[in-house]
Amino acid sequence: MTDPMRVMIADDHPVFRDGLASLLDPLPEIEVVARAADGAEAVVMAAEHRPDVIIMDVQMPELNGIEATRTITAAQPDVGVLVLTMGEDDGTVLAALRAGARGYLRKGAEQDEIVRALTTVHGGGVVFGASLAARIAEVLAPASRPERPFPELTERETEILDLIATGRNNGQIAQALFLSPKTIRNNITSILSKLQATDRAEVIIRARDAGLGQGD
Predict the structure, then answer these.
(1) Which of 136, 149, 188, 203 has its CA 20 to 30 A from that of 165?
(2) Is pLDDT of 132 > 80?
(3) Are 21 and 32 in contact (CB under 8 A)?
(4) Is residue 1 over pLDDT 80?
(5) Across the chain, how many H-helices and E-strands are there?
(6) Whole-angstrom Cα distance, residue 153 to residue 136?
(7) CA distance 163 to 169
(8) Residue 70: half-sphere exposure toward Cβ, Cα within 13 Å
């Protein structure tokens, strides 16, 4: 007999978290091995329980689901993470994929849809809606992207520089990339140093001259 799929649920809303567990745990092919109330707890429980698949909410206290996914998949590359979204939010799903997730589930999905998604991810596949296929293909094929205008910067630093060039402040950048304000500040310090720029205004001018900052 095949062992049941070991599933962990991370969501800060107890009614949803426990309700989803009650929906899945009675199924013979699934065993809910842990329930986490925030991202930090999810990281600890993932290391302790070693689930096969994690259903991960994005907006959680302590540590958001994107950062928790990044930490967990770095330590456990074989774990499958499905992020929970309210809808087909391109930005959230792409950020989750970059962090190591293998797809997403919409809150309110039917039981059979959830089970199919879990089974697909457990088998090594990815789960996403048809409307996201083109953008996800772009994410999964970095070689097809044009060369970055500032090759001395890391991909993350270039991403942050692009948002700086749109005129966003540190808080807005942190929210857009699901990173902490401290991480954003550290990256900006590195960008200034690598580009030998004296201040943020100079960085914005140089970035826009190079074609960045066209997103807004």
Answers:
(1) 136
(2) no
(3) yes
(4) no
(5) 10, 5
(6) 23
(7) 9
(8) 13
Quickly state the pLDDT bin for 95 (edges 50, 70, 90).
confident
| DSSP character at residue 132 | G
CA torsion 147-149-153-155 (nearest 10°) is -50
Q: What is the DSSP string of 167-186?
A: T--HHHHHHHHT--HHHHHH
Enter the DSSP assignment of 216. -
Q: Please state, in angstroms and rounded to a whole number, the distance separating the CA atoms of residues 50 and 30.
A: 14
141-173 pLDDT, tens digit each? 555 455 668 888 888 899 999 999 998 999 999
Only one residue has tokens 């329980």, namely: 49
Task: Give the sign of the dihedral formed by CA 106, CA 108, CA 113, CA 114.
Answer: positive
Q: Choose among 78, 74, 83: nearest CA to 51.
A: 78
Tell me what pLDDT residue 129 has: 60
* Residue 213 reports pLDDT greater than 60: yes
Let me know if 62 is exposed, middle or buried by CB neighbors in 10 A (0-12, 13-18, 19+).
middle
C-beta neighbour count of 195 within 10 angstroms: 17
End-to-end CA distance of the chain: 54
Question: Domains of the chain by range and CATH?
Answer: 5-139 (3.40.50.2300), 155-209 (1.10.10.10)
Question: What percentage of the chain reaches a pLDDT higher than 70?
Answer: 87
CA–CA dist 113, 119 (Å, integer): 10
Please tell me the distance from the alpha carbon of residue 201 to that of residue 207, in angstroms, as a whole number: 10
